Amino acid sequence: TNLVTVLFHLGEMATITQSLDEDTFQVLGEELGYKVQIVSPEDEDRELLESFDIDLEAEEEAEDAEDKQPRPPVVTVMGHVDHGKTKLLDAIRSANVASKEAGGITQHIGAYQVAVEHDDEERRITFLDTPGHEAFTAMRARGAKATDVAILVVAADDGVMPQTIEALNHAQAADVPIVVAVNKVDKDGANPAKVMQQLTEYNLVSEEYGGDTMFVPISALKGTGIEDLLEAVLLTTDAALDLKANPDKSARGIAIEAKLDKGRGAVASVLIESGTLRQGDAIVCGTAFGRVRAMFDENGEQLDEAGPSRPVQVLGLSSVPRAGDTFLSTDDDRTARQIAEKRDAIERNAAQARGRKRISLEDFAKALEEGKVDMLNLILKGDVSGAVEALEDSLLKIDVGDEVDLRIIHRGVGAITENDINLATVDNAIVIGFNVRPEAKARDAAEREGVDVRYYSVIYDAIDDIENSLKGMLKPTF
Ligand code: GDP
């Protein structure tokens, strides 16, 4: 028999070229006497590496705590447009060049490191110098976590704005501690106290108000408060995180940006997460492979080696990797090449099998009934802030009992953006649009990623649907 017939008997109308969702594959497999196992891309890659005797998790576990040494925090600067992210990154960099001896010209390699005197000790901090949360979210959507701490820049004359909220939502969803830089305090009309007060609403409560978020007044333009800000980053790091990595092993890390250079070929900036990368090492980064022909730091200085939290520009890859691609050095060239080639083949297959299914409200109701989930993540977008607030209030008032948690991970005014979909993808959330439509890019992304986006124009309809699904009784809509 052919598959279409089998599917038809299962109540599924399909043509031979149509792609099916995971559930259907499961049922189809069972019908044909196979057990269908659906592997995530991460699992698949882990298995691939294991077939080359590389087991990153086992490696991590087997490591002695003594082998690990403190590593610098990696920091991303986020905030609303024009609040001074770029200026701040420039100010930090020019106030504090890590290698003072370097006579080199500063290079943009996607990140830089600064040295700070802290408790009579020289400490370092790595800054990703592509501001904004788009890069951050894109990397997260690819499973990479490149940031330890976020600096949220808020202009004191403007206060909390939509992208401020978006940025802090992203950081909070990723469990990244936040330091608030209250910028432009040099300006007339600057009101740092207001920023502090506004942010308490988002669980960013300053120490003065009894919270544990550090707020630092700065002027990126005048270069004031920068030292205090760096100090606050270190204090927050030490309070919230225990950042350690073993420098004495082969290098592991992540690509932060890459490009094709006419003269030098593929140029990739990578952030070393653990181990040490040396010139001449065989490496594989995503589907690119090669040998480290040369390495440079942010001052254009050539390096022989680079340890944890160090950003370096690497020459010698066969092709241009993507931001967020993981990299590792391998024992030999052949292994690197084979891993890259296998990944390439896997990606091609995956590209054909698009339409990965994320959770929908119906799935959620079903899974809830079977006791498989206990958390519903929602993203709310509406045309006016009053409506969004009303919706949020009513949703939070739904009596969901003890078994299930309703979390609103992001809310905002305006069209549904690609960023909303990215966030929904990462946190398996459902997007609720109230009197708004998606941007074209967002619609494409939602379709590609299988994110459930629901539109309402009556608040009660939205509440009803969510309430019903929380009670496990939402009827599928077709
Ligand atoms: P971004 O969009 O967040 O990267 O913001 P920019 O760094 O490009 O800054 C936006 C504008 O605000 C620029 O015209 C900056 O010169 C100005 N700006 C940034 N920081 C300060 C500051 O501390 N004080 C004042 N007065 N202006 C600032």
From TrEMBL:
GTP binds at residues 79-86, 129-133, 183-186. Keywords: Cytoplasm, GTP-binding, Initiation factor, Nucleotide-binding, Protein biosynthesis. The lineage of its organism: Bacteria, Bacillati, Actinomycetota, Actinomycetes, Micrococcales. It comes from the Bacteria. It is found in: Cytoplasm. One of the essential components for the initiation of protein synthesis. Protects formylmethionyl-tRNA from spontaneous hydrolysis and promotes its binding to the 30S ribosomal subunits. Also involved in the hydrolysis of GTP during the formation of the 70S ribosomal complex. Belongs to the TRAFAC class translation factor GTPase superfamily. Classic translation factor GTPase family. IF-2 subfamily. The gene is infB. This is Translation initiation factor IF-2. The chain holds residues 360 to 837 of 936 of the full protein. Residues 70-241 form the Tr-type G domain.
